[in-house]
Every structure is written in structure tokens, then in C-alpha cells.
């Protein structure tokens, strides 16, 4: 069963207008007006206008009468479509090989086989929504078994995200309004006149009378929502994407045959990449089945490559994920993320030592779903929690360790923990301290090591001071603790004590 993500942008049109004209007041209500002959109505409203009681479909004259300072802009469907396509292309490069525009205000993705790269469906949705919100674009997202179910749920709910468990589609959509079935407005009005209010009521009604009066569209939409009829997603493709295809006169289905043609497609793709001086970072294998459904496999690499043998192995390792069904009629291989790649002279092992390349190891881990792969690199900072950063495991060395004359603990806590201390101010180490409910008497101590705040990071650190001590308790365990402040001036810190690390 495929898994489909529907993303809905409730304020796409108004957000596009605000980004295009930064001079528009942020706190003022803004609406978009659509026209049809002499009729004018609101096709989009922002959050400020919604709080004042305006909604999509309201007459423009009524909205203007409600708020005198209302900012009104004419609808531009072409500009909205272009903005939606840009979002879709970004999602294609980041989340799934099968992404399509879902007009007028959403995108749809088939994430089967791709969610594990993001830590699962829940983490994938939360990361997706948070990334859109960080760019000033509110979004809602739903993952379900079908496009119709995800579409209806995401436009009817008030929460930001929802994960519908596999096989629970019918229960999830039973209470949805009829408008979520993507029927034309006249049909929805007629169904409501007949007494239907929800999708569940319509799904439980015999089809023949409805088909006789309204045609087959109602039954088709209900079946698509429930998963009885396939609704393939036609993925968007950027003209710049390098893509190769292989169509078959007779459908294929054996794993050996699929692997053979994958190798041929990879060879052809690498030749295209070589002519352009590029290497691939992410490849998508699109499988077109004879039943008009699409499957996709995504393979990523830690650095740009165009090694035929290695790319073939990454894709062949996941052939078991492909369900050929009644047969595969076409295979497509696309390089959805590329970077410049130049040929380099390799080291000769008898003359010089070759550098150890862990890129292949990182690729294997990443494509198996271990998505948090990084290494720690030093940063020129005296503040302990800022002295290291996470970088790509194959990133080049960016610097050397910041010179330190004092020892550092092998374990640094994610966040310093508050402790109770008895100590003589301003420069004496603690006599005892209480941490996590246990009092520890200090037998030996070294310090203080004074670390000043970094005033260029934030203004609150202009006068900030930390005095660090290495202390050893009566059991021989050593800790790294500090006092916030210099022990004299209250402007330098709160004079509270914290534990920041533990020595081996």
C-alpha cells in the first residue's frame, strides 16, 4: 500500500503578495479578490483578515464594508501556480522522487520507501511543516494511504500535521464534509439538498441511484479516497534534471531483469553526467507499472559520484522494495541532486599513502535509514558548548582545535544542570555540592578557569563571566562545574552553580 503526503498552504496567495512587496503592513488584513464578470469575491484571506470574520467566498463588497483599511489585491492564478511549482521542485529534491502540484494551494508526494530517510513519517511531517514555517509560509500536512484521503483531511483539520495509520483510511475520512471529495460545487450542493453531509454517509449509500442522477464521478472519487481505485501521481520534472528512460515492449518483473536494466540506466546516466562535469548526490528510480501506478526508489550519496558500479549497487540493494505487480512497462532514472565533479589524480599506493575514503560506508548507512550521520569538528570558541559543531562525515577539515591550557571532560552535557553549592566567594572552589538529589563532598579541586562571554554573539554576554572548576568527590569521581558570574558583580551573572561535564 503506497503512502501519500498532502501538503496544504492555506495562505499561499497572500504570503506570495507580502513577499513580493515588503512595504505592505504586517499587521493589516489582506485579501485576494477574484472576478467573474461583474461578480467579485474573496479567493484568499490572510490570518489577520480571518480573525476579523472574513472567509473565502465572501463577497468583496461585504468584506470592504466590514473593514475600511482592508488591503485588496487582484487574484493572479499564474503567479500562484509558479510559486506552487517552486515549492514542489524543492520538495522533489528534499523528500520524495514522486512529487506533483496539487492546485490551487497544495502539493502531493508519494513517500513510500522515502520516509525512512527522515526518521519515519511523524518526524518527516514535523520537519516538513517546520521548514515551511521557518520561511514564513504556514503549512499543514497529512500522510495517508490515498491521495484523496490525505487531500480531504489536510483541508478539513485545524492541527498542523496528522499521520493516518495504514489501513485506517475509512475510519479517518468518515466524518469529512462532501467538499473534500473534489467534486464540482454544483454536485456538492445537490447532494446536501438530498440530505448527505459526510463522506461516510455517501459511501454507505447504494451507487446505482447516485450514478443514474449524477454520473460516475461520485463513485470514482469515493473509490479513490478509500483506495479501491488507483490514483497515480504524475511527478513534476525540472528541465534541468538529467533523466534517462527505458520502455519495454513486454512487461518485466523478475528481480534479475530489473537489476540488469538498472545497470544499463546507470551507465547511460553517468555518461550524461560526465559530459556536463557533474556528479550525482541523489538518484531516483521511477518504476511505471502496467496498472498505471508508480513506485519510486531513492538513493543518496555523501558526496558527488558518477561511479557506475557503486550507483548500481546502491539501487540493486533495494530491488526487493519493488513490487512489479502485473509487470513493469517503463523504468526512469533521474539525477535529482547534482554537484560539480572533476576528475582527480588518485594516489599511488607504492609511493604515497592514499587517504581513507569513508564515503561508501556513509552511503550504505544512509540508504539503510540511518539518517543522522555526522562528525564533530572544532570551532574557534572558548565557550564549551560552541567549541564544536556537527558537519558532514565526508566534509573537508575546516580548522584545528582551539588552543586550551585546561583539561576538558570527555562527556559534555547537552545542557548545564543546576546544582546546590556551598562555597566561599569569590574565588574558592565548592566545599560540597548537591546534584540529582545526592550531596557530594569535594576532596580536591582545581581552578578557577575564567571564560568570558562572546559579546559578538548576543548583547546579554557583554559582561558575562563563567568560573570553571574541576572537582573530585570522596568516591574519586571528577566533575566540571562552573559559577555564572565572577562572584562579586551581579551584572556578570546570576552567581548560581551548574555542572557542565564529567571526566573519565
Features:
single chain, 504 residues, 6-stranded antiparallel β-barrel
- C-alpha Rg (nearest Å): 30 Å
Helix vs. strand class? alpha+beta
**Could you estimate the helical fraction of the residues in percent?**
25-40%
Strand content: 25-35%
Gist?
The protein is of the alpha+beta class.
Explain what you see.
- The chain has 504 residues and is an alpha+beta fold.
- Helix content is 27%, strand content 30%.
- The protein is built from 14 helices and 20 strands.
- It has helices at residues 12-20, 47-51, 60-66, 77-94, 121-134, 147-154, 169-173, 185-193, 199-203, 207-214, 217-226, 255-275, 308-316, 359-367, and strands at residues 4-8, 30-36, 39-45, 71-74, 98-102, 106-110, 140-144, 161-163, 242-252, 278-289, 294-305, 328-340, 375-378, 388-391, 411-423, 430-435, 438-452, 465-473, 478-484, 497-502.
- The strands form five sheets. It has a six-stranded antiparallel barrel with strand order 15-16-17-18-19-20. The chain has a five-stranded mixed sheet with strand order 5-6-1-7-8, with helices on both faces. A four-stranded antiparallel sheet has the order 9-12-10-11.
- The longest helix has 21 residues, at 255-275.
- It is globular, with a radius of gyration of 30 Å.
- The two termini are 50 Å apart.
